[in-house]
Write a structure and sequence with these properties.
Elements: H1 2-11, H2 17-70, E1 82-85, E2 89-94, E3 103-110, E4 113-119, E5 121-122, E6 127-128, E7 135-140, E8 153-156, E9 174-181, E10 192-198
Antiparallel strand pairs: 1-2, 2-3, 3-4, 4-7, 5-6, 8-9, 9-10
């Protein structure tokens, strides 16, 4: 009976101090190795993750801009659909929120951010402001078009002929958007270019 109790006590005793130290050391080494591996992963791929996120946002923004441009129409005051055009900005009328009231919309590349400004029709007779927008949206950040001297907006006339310096808004039939996204031009992965081509539906008619 005494032998049984003695053996039971031996088999159920806890870890010795040395064993605890060894187990703790092994656990610490494993955790340090995992932490180092995770840190290295994020350090190596963090830039790629951030770049992919900005490209995703830019793609959504370009899709929104393309829809707005495609649906451009005459302003509620009778103004022609396309108002202003340059390599870095585009102004036009469009019912962007589908409320049967046409808004004046401007897409503007300011340094490295592409913005969308919305101006609502007000008053009687109807008028549109052009100084302080009623709504402002960020379409895409880290846009490198200006850095690379690349047009954000390109314009074409009937037959796909590129617009010239003497072309007017009534000559335009086709618009393309080009957005170069790169959160850090000095690092890889490099830039990503998004393109969209739009034929506005109401540029061939008169009110």
């Amino acid at each position: 009976m005494k032998s049984f109790i003695h053996n039971y006590q031996q088999s159920t005793r806890g870890l010795s101090l040395v064993e605890v130290i060894v187990v703790s050391a092994l656990y610490t080494l494993i955790m340090l190795a995992l932490t180092s591996a995770i840190t290295s992963l994020y350090r190596t791929n963090g830039h790629a993750f951030a770049q992919a996120y900005e490209v995703y946002n830019a793609r959504r923004g370009i899709e929104l801009a393309s829809r707005d441009i495609r649906e451009m129409t005459f302003g509620d005051d009778g103004t022609y659909p396309l108002v202003s055009m340059s390599s870095t900005s585009l102004g036009f009328f469009s019912d962007i929120d589908r409320d049967n009231s046409v808004e004046y919309v401007r897409y503007v590349l300011a340094t490295t951010t592409l913005y969308k400004y919305v101006y609502n029709a007000t008053g009687t007779p109807i008028a549109y402001g052009s100084t302080t927008p009623d709504e402002t949206y960020t379409i895409s950040e880290y846009v490198q078009n200006k850095l690379q001297a690349t047009s954000t907006f390109l314009y074409f006339m009937e037959g796909g002929v590129s617009a010239s310096a003497t072309s007017t808004v009534t000559d335009i039939r086709y618009i393309t958007l080009n957005v170069i996204v790169n959160i850090d031009p000095n690092r890889n992965p490099g830039e990503y270019t998004l393109r969209s081509s739009v034929a506005p539906r109401n540029l061939k008619t008169t009110p």
